[in-house]
Amino acid sequence: SLAGARGERVLFAGLEFELGAGEALWVQGPNGAGKSTLLRTVGCVQGAEAQVDGGVSWQGRPLLDWPAKARARELAWLGQGETGASDLRAADVVMLGRLPHQAWLAAPNEADRLAVRDAMQRTHCWDWRCRPMGQLSGGERQRVLLARALAVQARVLLMDEPLAHLDPPHQADWLDIVRAQVAAGVTVVSVLHELNMALQADDLVDRKSTRLNSSHVALSRMPS
To answer: The whole model's pTM is what?
Structure first.
């Protein structure tokens, strides 16, 4: 089971759930309910303010037992409020998603370049691939950062408020991208504030079945 706290405040405890390949899980709730802490717990990505207890297994093996580089190939992460270095070109930021696949100090190969192009085309940011991040709007930067996560080509995709700064048409594009990922067998876990997107889920993982102690966080699934 999983537990998470911020300081002395318990955000969730005794939380148990399973996700298979080709499933998406949305996490909803108000600010401060523990959504981001839960996502960091699932991905073994811990913020300085989060103390977590419990275990996460992937492919039948504790996630923390995976070597860091192998874990980075398996799990792609899009954090809340990320911006990317303002002087880096958009394509260079997306290429960072390929680092887990590259040898130390190795130059990108053709597979890396194809993965970057595919990810940027799917998120509709290929046209400004040569522009520095500092010259992009908030929505444009968010699409670049989503492309970076997709470029990893991981089997698990973790996203914390990925729809921030996106207008409704690009929110719909995001949902299409997630459905395509799920159809391809990728496991997706995402924190969402946008209720209209959360309602696209096909199922609800209720608090009783997950042993979710917090009354402020809800989990919903979107199977393939």
So the answer is: 0.84
